[in-house]
Amino acid sequence: MLLREVEYAKPSSVAEALQILASNDGARALAGGQTLISVMKARAASPDALVDLAALDELRGIELAADGTLSIGPMTTYTELVASAEAKARPILAEVCAQIADVQVRNRGTIGGNLCSNDPTNHLPPLMVSIGATMTIAGQGGERVVSADEFFLGVYLTAVGPGELLTKISLPAGKRDAFAAVTLGVDGTCIASAAASINSAAASLNGSLRIALGCVDATPVLVEPASADEGAVREAVRGAGLDPPADVHASAEYRLHLSEVLAVRAARQAAERN
Amino acid sequence: MSENPSALSSSRVITVTVNGTVYEREVEARKLLIHFIRDDVDLTGSHIGCDTGNCGACSVIVDGTLVKSCMVLAVQADGSSIETVEGLADGDELAALQQAFSDRHALQCGYCTPGMLMSATALLRTNARPTEAEIKKGLQGNICRCTGYWNIVEAVALAAERMQP
Fold it and tell me: What is the value of ipTM here, to two decimals?
C-alpha cells in the first residue's frame, strides 16, 4: 500500500529526537511501527513526519535494581521482554507479552509503543495500572514522572504531549499478578481484559489489590476490592459504574459480564501466586 | 541530497543486503519494505496478501528477526541484512524445509507459502525440535486461506526431523 507522503528522520540521541518533535507540529515518534504503520495505511493517522527512535540505545534495555524495581526502556520489544532474565522479577510481564499478536509483531512491537498508542484493547495499559507502574516523560524542558493512573488520558491519548517522549517505565517489585482476557482467537485482540496485582512490596500501595479493566472505557478502569474473594471483586466491579462500548464482537451487556468474570479470575490467580 | 540521518527528508539512500547481495537505492520514506523488495530489488517471492499486517505472506527475516515486511518502512531497514524465500534454496537444491513442504503437500494455492517458509525457518533456527504446539505458535502470524494448516504443521515437523544432526 502506498502511504501518504511523509518525512523521516533517524536521530542519534533523545535530545535530538525531542528537538525534531518539538519543532515540527505534525511529527510523530516511530517505535516498532506495528500500530503506527497500520493506522497510517488506514489513514486513521497522517503524520507529516516520522521520528524513528530505533537508533536510541538510551531507550532500550531492562535493569533490575537492588530493591527489585524494574526499569524498562520503552523501545524494548515484546520478544526481548519475554527473553529477559531481569524481567522475570515480575513474571507477568513476559507472560502477557508472549500472548500479544504473533511472532512477527512481538519481534518489532515495543512496550513503549503499546503504552503510548493506548488502544483500549491493548494488553499493557491495564497491566501497568494494576502494577502501579510509573512512566518517565521527557521534553525539551526536562523530565517528569507520571503514575500509570494518570498516564492514560483517552483513546490513543496519553500524558506524553506534543514534543515529548516516554523514556522509561518503572515497575515496583512484586510477583502476585495475573492477567485474564477473552480474545479474538488465541493471542488475538482483547474483547475484554482484567489485570490484577497484589502490590505487597510497594509501600505507597499498601499491599492492596488493584484490578484494572481493559476494553470497557477509553482508559483502563481501576477497581480496588477489599479482598480477592469472589464476592468482594464482583461488588467492586458492579460499583464501578461501567458503561462499556458495544461492537461487532460483544454487546455492552456481554462486555460488562465478561469484565466481572475476568476480574474474579484475575484476582483469584493473583492471590494464588506467591 | 542531505545524508544527515537526523534531518527530516522525504527520501533517502539506503544500503540493504538481500540474500547476500548489497543494494543501494534511493527510496521514499513512505515506501514499505515489501515494495522495496518486490519493486526495487525485483524479488517477487515475498507476497502481499492482506497489506494490513494480518496475513504474514510478506514475512522476511531482517537481521535474524522475523518481521512482516508490509509493517516496516524500507528506510527502517537501512543497513540491515534481509533474507527472503529466494535465499532458501541452494541453486536447484531445495532447502530441507522446502522439500518437506513438497513431500507433505503443504501448499495448495501457494500464496501463503513464502511467508510460511520464512516463519518456519525462523522457528527452526531457535527451536530445532519444536512440539506441535510450538510449531503452531511459530506460524501464528501466517494465514493460509486454503486452510491447509495440518499439512503445513506436519511438513515443519518433518523438516525438523530430517535436519537433526
Answer: 0.96
